[in-house]
Design goal:
alpha/beta; 6-stranded mixed beta sheet; 4-stranded parallel beta sheet; 17 helices; 48% helix; 10% strand
Length: 405
Amino acid sequence: MALSDLQIQTLARDAVQRAAAGDFVGAEPLLAQVAEARPNSGQALHLLGQARLKLGRFAEAREPLERAAKFLPKEVSAQVNLAGCLSILGEHAASLTALERAHRLKPGDAAIAHNKGRAFEALGRLDEAEQAYNEALSIDHRLMPTLSARANLLATRGDWIGALADLEMALTSRPNDPHLRLRRGNLLLRQGDWLRGLSDYEARLELPGERYAPDLPRWQGEPLAGRLLIYPEQADIESDAALRDTLMLARGVEATVQCSPRLADWLDMPTIQRGAALDGFVAAAPLRSLPYLLGWTLDALPSPGALRTTAQAASTRVGWFTDYPPPAGIDIERSPEQVPACRMVVGEDVWPVHLAARLGLPTIVLVPSGGDWLWGPQPGDSPWYQSAEVLPAGDAAALASRLAF
């Protein structure tokens, strides 16, 4: 049964009131009725699409938003909302088309220019993305999303100075923003600037996430009248990242390390399992905070300390902990437990490789571009382990030359 004009007006008024109050669950079915009764009403379709966007029903929002954009060709918001929906659905080329229409309608809009930049970047058209971000910032030089996005783009291209400049500008408006501080810290640390980067890196501890922390006061480097606990902050203490951090960073401080039972028999230092009672401990620090708390630099790292086992050199095998195919004629070993018996070890930044390096075995660590900042910005002899050399992952020629013996 067709609705009367009065009924449609009543439904529309009720829906708009509900939407204005934030009740999109209640507004959406009413707007759907209005759109069904007035299928050529761009405004009704646009409101329905917006309600579904607010509800996270993006696939359902697409059809009314596409129709609204056609019925409202001079309505900027109709084009922008369609573009946003298409972007969320991963249809970046179609999103860019809608944004181009919006840009023609309102050429001096910084938000539209920013969204064009995001679409270009998603499509891999990085030069055009940078141009769009530049346009947005020429309109509003403090536009936070654009400063953040351009910083990411510039960092990806290796333009550290430009990326840092954008983050510094963003931080003038939000000086305590932990996301921005952490990103600045990561950029500085990847360049080897620990003096400025380490304090910013501590902002990670202010962010929500699956991060473990014991129920103890966080140590800030002060003298203690009791035991100190150091621990991997990964939620899964058995993960490769937690095992690796323990082997790499549990050094330079008198403390008990909370670690996986898998490592407890290897480490020649007091250990405790996660979940054990923490009686007698007065403070704790995550392993990744030790460089900041103890003032480490890449030029002055403490010794990694001894292990309870020693290298045996009982075989001619090469420990191989990478998917990169080994050269012909090399007898490889892939078991972490057999690392002490290997004559050398090759692999990515994984815990068996750290074990080998800490044992003093000749070790080649394959670190990709953008790898962990702890390794420093340059390949070569590692400051963390006397027997380790860092090579860029994927440099087949360099690796082959090291294995040619």
